[in-house]
Amino acid sequence: MLYPKRLQIAFLTSTNPKDRRSWSGLHYMLGQALEKHVGDVEYLGPVSMRYLFSFGDLANKVISWLSGGKRYHYSISVLTARIYAAVFKAKLRGKHFDFIFAPASYTEVAFLRTDIPIVQCGDSTITQLIDYYSGLSNLLEISKKELTYVEQLAINKSSLLVYSSKWAAESAIHDFGASMENVVVLPFGANLPTVLPREVVLKHQKGTVCNLLFVGVDWERKGGEIAFETLVELNESGVDARLTICGTAPPVGFKHEKLTVIPFLDKNDTKQLAQLTQLYLDADFFLLPTRAECAAIAFCEASAFGVPSFTTDTGGIADFVEDDVNGYRLSLAARGSDFALAINRVFENQEVYNRLRISSRQLFEQRLNWDVWGKEMKLILESHFRPHLRNSRFRAHPSSVSRVRAKIKEKMYKQQTISGFERRVKNHTCPPDKCGISRNR
Fold first, then answer.
1. Does residue 341 sit in helix, strand or coil?
2. What is 7-189+370-434's CATH superfamily?
3. Radius of gyration of the chain (CA)
């Protein structure tokens, strides 16, 4: 057996990683994937900052009044980071781990003093989110500087940086000076407890009604208004379209006889999960004209059901929706009329529609699922942290980052097959830092 002993992993988050709502369920799914494919996981969270954050809320009311609407992001600050460092240092004391896995936890590890290697996992850098997401807009300049400073410290002390998109990886390299050798791109999987078999989801047959599904909790950021416009445009052009909105409620004034609104469905509840599953099974298209997005795992879910996605080309979406494979990315300037036209072209072409459904499911099976993420992560982590490879510098996953390197016009590392990698490691016939890992898409 190549690796008889499982890796020992400290899963570091301030939130509760067992809560399926934490980081849109990603903390839970990442932990499950590591347990299944990589090693033994000990969860170090949650860590409560209730009193500090309550004080921060009160302070921001005063700051906003004095500064004309600006605010201080207290949850990502030097003070908060130092408190986290002290808490997690105590939690780690006297324990042995091969590495610390810190998903979306740069504040938690920025000031952490430890000899244990740190693996950061995220869907963006802080630089990309400032004035991109509403939660990181209207910040004081000092707060912006602190955010950047905290993440810079975290990136500097991380042995490995795992991002869900090339968009995020490029920012780590360009904006924070991360070494390309320590950056890996691995898209996330679907946040589904079970996945229906291919033959079940592909039984869906398009009828005369065009069923659109919108899943998201933020009406404005997810482009709810444009989705509504799309419904109106399709019907006015003669297409019998229906739109189901799940996860949010439209503002007053957004009413249509062919609009169905389901404000919330809890995946932890068996009946509600079954209802969500049926929505995907009934859908002809997944529509999410989002204004800002790092990695909407709803695209992975849609692909799992063979449902083509129509969205915008922004943020890290390109690694989750590939044009003419599992959907289409329209310009951020596109409105409802543009989405209606694009959707109708596919809806009227049975051959194209059937092909898209098959290729959507195929992309999910090949790349957008947690088993693929876990298996590829296992290869990367074992090559980096196993004792006989511990002293080698980590070489980034060649095919995972090749397009990043091409874009920034840096030389690419020679790709080799996974089987070749395993053979060389087993026989010890090449230096560890020369053993590449290929990526099956």
1. helix
2. Glycogen Phosphorylase B; (3.40.50.2000)
3. 23
